[in-house]
Design brief:
This protein has 222 residues and is of the alpha/beta class. A six-stranded mixed β-sheet has the order 2-3-4-1-5-6, with helices on both faces.
Length: 222
Amino acid sequence: MSLAKSIRRGGVPRSTIVRAVNDVSFEVKQGEIVGIVGRNGSGKTTLLRSIAGIFQPDEGNIDTHGNRVSLMAIGIGFNGNNTGRENILKSGMLLGCSYDYVKERMDEIIEFSELGDFIDRPVRTYSSGMYSKLSFSVTAILDTDIMLVDEVLSVGDEHFRQKSFAKMEELMCSDRTVLIVSHATNTLDKFCDRVLWINDGQFMKIGPTSEVLEEYNLSQQL
């Protein structure tokens, strides 16, 4: 059926506005590690991308107090036609790091990523595991004030996951502020000082990790 006929027959549905995140308010202290939980579609990724400045809120505001923010997520941040090495440079400079600083840390990032010769191949040829290794390495090695982690710790081989966990423990001893989205509640229980629970874009609760995770897990059994 043509568009014109659909319009004449009233067959074109009206658009529906869906608020992915609505009336969610919280504060995070410097150096704090906060987990974010919620069912699929609850707005967790939208929330992180808004904090990173990728999305702009329609209402309210997000204040990062001038801190540099990095987002570690699968499928975002890299140009698939550029090599891993080129993407390291571009990503670092987008994070506000100088060209010389990124070049200085380049070898450390490549070594941590374990990508070998693939570092000079286009990122579009990478598997999701390889992508996550590069993403984690760039964000963990380069010095940003706030690190946002969206499910990346759950991707990759077991060896790299263990290495990532060790790096996260190292970051916990620094002043880096970290927000982690993960369905792996054992990961959040291991790293987080507090946990934020959102459901269908709505604020549910924020508080001590064990307390919020217990309530969240019980809600999933209902």
